[in-house]
Every structure is written in structure tokens, then in C-alpha cells.
Amino acid sequence: MLIRQANAADWPGIWAxxxxxxxxxxxxxxxxxxxxxxxxxxxxxAPEQAPAMHDAGAPARVxxxxxxxEETGGGAPPxxxxxxxxxxNFPGAGSHIANAGFMVxxxxxxxGYGRLLAHHVLDAARADGYRGMQFNAVVESNTGAVYLxxxxxxxxxxxxxGAFDHPSLGPVGLHIMFKFLAG
Length: 183
Known about the structure:
Layout: E1 2-5, H1 11-24, H2 36-43, E2 64-70, E3 79-88, E4 97-104, H3 113-127, E5 132-139, H4 143-151, E6 155-166, E7 170-180
Parallel strand pairs: 4-5
Antiparallel strand pairs: 1-2, 2-3, 3-4, 5-7, 6-7
């Protein structure tokens, strides 16, 4: 297993990991009919398209995408089993707070990839000088994610009741979660 920053050649594997989660519509606010091109632009923007956001006097922070790869044996290239994107939650005066999204391919859930990737991204956020990390929309019925984030020290700051239209449960809440990274 290897966790590393993604590159353009990783996109087919990233999309293979992301698409089942997006199409299921149970854990992300992305439209279930999102196109591959739209998700590529959002999740793995070309370096010249990645917005650089910063506080006055602070170095610019850009979006970074990570992958977890697993060897598949033989001469086949490693398989992307999980991905994450780290970026400022807000531009300008709010850019010292990170935001991140995480997706694990459904066939690889429950194997610890999400937790390992979370530790990696939190370390990257600290190294980038972020002072905290905020998640804006953790679906409350996604109990695995809520458990993971709470176990890593995130607090539920508030829950917006009925803000997420779950395909089988109907309206469920969206948690806003936060963790201090420095100080």
C-alpha cells in the first residue's frame, strides 16, 4: 500500500473509486449524474487551474489530491483504492482552515484505507500551515464516516436538519465538523 499525491495519470483509477460512491447518492452532495469530466475538473484540477488561496502575508495554498494504491500482482499497475482532496475551506481570510473530501472504493471499505488516508491528509494539512480542518457536509446517516472523524478528534459543531435528501432514508441531517490542527 502506498499513499501519495495524485497525478494526471491516476485519474482513471480515481474515477473508478469515486464513481460508485457518487452514483449511490448516499454520502456526498454531488449530483448522482455528475459527469466524469465535471468530477475530474473538481477533484483533480490541472495545476494551472487549481486556485491559490491565502491569507494576507501567508503563502498561497492550493488544492492537492491524494491516492491510496494497492499492488494487484503480476505486471498490472497498482490499483487506486481511495482518494482524498485537500484544499482551503474558504478563500482569503478564511484560507487557514482546510477542507477535505475522502472516498474509498466500496469494494475496499472497512479495510482501514480511509483512516490511513485521513491521518496522511491531516499531516499534510498541518505541514501546509492550516490551523484547523472543517467538513461542511458529513451526512449524519454515514455512521462510518462520523465515527472515523470523531475518533480522530473532530467535533460536530452543528447539524442542519433534513439538509440531505438520502435516496432511501429521505431527508437526513448534514453535520458540520471541525478539528483544530495547531495551537
